[in-house]
Write a structure and sequence with these properties.
5-stranded mixed sheet; 40% helix; CinA-like protein; Maf protein; 6-stranded mixed sheet; 14 helices; single chain; alpha/beta; 25% strand
Length: 421
């Protein structure tokens, strides 16, 4: 069995809407152990939708069941053509379902509105298709087997509606028909402070494994290794993945920081809680980004005291006790100022640790001596130890990327120090 995802909507092609439905369904198919090799986005055009259907059927082995998952094109407007096009392609008429009209009318009445005539279109489904009910919205989908070894599901484009229809109807249907007996289990290991290519070289032999498989990914400075295996139960999957996971962690060493839903901020938080320690931050070029990352974690008030956004030099001197002479002679973007910022915020907030960030985020403001992407991170401890770290994130024009890398790297600096103590 294999599946293809077909997302219908010209707005997707134009980039007006992020196609989160494909990502959701891809992950769900993996969890069911259903092979998934292709995704297609097609506009609201009957001819092109038919071409997509034809291509999917032609490339599917004739001795395997093909599942086509459609999202979008189920609304009441003239450009919503998914069901109509499917009926035309397979040569069957559309049939009206009075129970759908009644359901839509009831939902409108509950909202104090009257169903418009155009909504009757949503009750017209290909003859022979079963209704895939939509509890939350007005656009029902279908479950249809128009020919042997072919199952078609249609869902509305609204993610919340599609998710519920998938969980409550589509998944039980597939499982009742013998699919999903072996599930693909995955674990995502996360790393910071090492390039994807460097990590891939270190773990190269493990990338050749057949079961479990190991695959590298990289995004915004973070490197990930996904371990995946197909197994009949979580226990079996854990037995297969655990030795590989331990070997990867051993090879990566301190560059490994967490797995799955863990973030640098959440990992730092756990370390601080375990030690009964607290943190304050002083930010310049990141403008509060580091504090935002920390407070995204539920329960962060247990260790995060607060921060100072010292964008102007006057704020650095007034609130963080940074030397005005050092600001004049060495500049705000310097190791000395980073150290004083960290020391100052730790002292004023009476925390165990103080972190500071100062740098040139660009795209303007750089010089030969201090180019765009130059960032200093300061780290102060209540023992009196103060350190600074220099990073060069490159002369990119992406200001947001430099700010993101700066905040994450600051968290990683603290993580490494916490593991040393």
């Amino acid at each position: 069995m294999s599946a293809e995802i077909i997302c219908v909507g010209t707005e997707l092609l134009l980039g007006n809407i992020l196609n989160s439905n494909a990502q959701y369904l891809a992950n769900e198919l993996a969890m069911l152990g259903i092979a998934h090799y292709y995704q297609t986005v097609v506009g609201d055009n009957p001819t092109r939708i038919k071409q997509v259907i034809e291509t999917a059927i032609e490339r599917s082995p004739t001795d395997q069941t093909l599942v086509l998952l459609f999202t979008g094109g189920l609304g009441p407007t003239p450009d919503d053509l998914t069901h109509e096009t499917l009926a035309e392609y397979f040569g069957v008429p559309l049939a009206e379902h009075p129970e759908i009209i009644a359901d839509i009318s009831r939902k409108y009445a509950e909202r104090g509105r009257i169903m418009t005539p155009s909504n009757r279109k949503q009750a017209m489904l290909p003859q022979g298709a079963d209704v895939l009910p939509n509890i939350a919205g007005t656009a029902p989908g279908i479950i249809w087997t128009p020919r042997p070894n072919l199952i078609i599901f249609t869902f509305p484009g609204v993610p919340s509606e599609m998710h519920r229809m998938w969980r409550e109807t589509a998944v039980p249907y597939l499982q009742s028909h013998g699919f999903g007996q072996e599930v693909i289990y995955s674990r995502m290991l996360k790393f910071w402070g090492i390039a994807e290519s460097a990590l891939a070289e270190k773990v190269a032999p493990l990338l050749e494994l057949a079961n479990p498989t190991v695959a590298p990914y990289a995004s915004l400075g973070e490197v990930r290794l996904r371990i995946s295996t197909k197994a009949s139960s979580p226990t079996t999957a854990e037995q297969l993945m655990q030795p590989v996971e331990q070997e990867l962690k051993k090879i990566a060493g301190i560059n490994y920081f967490g797995a799955d839903d863990e973030t640098l901020a959440s990992v730092v938080g756990k370390l601080l809680i375990a030690r009964g320690e607290t943190l304050g931050v002083a930010e310049s070029c990141t403008g509060g980004g580091l504090g935002q990352m920390l407070t995204t974690v539920s329960g962060s008030s247990a260790y995060f005291q607060g921060g100072v956004i010292s964008y102007a030099n006057a704020v650095k001197t007034a609130l963080l006790n940074v030397s005005s002479q050092d600001l004049e002679t060495q500049g705000a973007v310097s190791a000395t100022v980073a150290e004083q910022m960290a020391k100052g915020v730790r002292s004023h907030l009476a925390t165990t640790w103080g972190i500071s960030i100062t740098g040139v985020a660009g795209p303007d403001g750089g010089s030969e001596a201090k180019p765009v992407g130059l960032v200093y991170i300061g780290l102060a401890h209540q023992s009196g130890t103060v350190q600074s770290f220099e990073y060069r994130f490159g002369a990119t024009k992406d200001r947001a990327l430099i700010r993101h890398l700066s905040s994450c790297t600051a968290l990683d600096c603290l993580r490494r120090q916490l593991l040393k103590y």
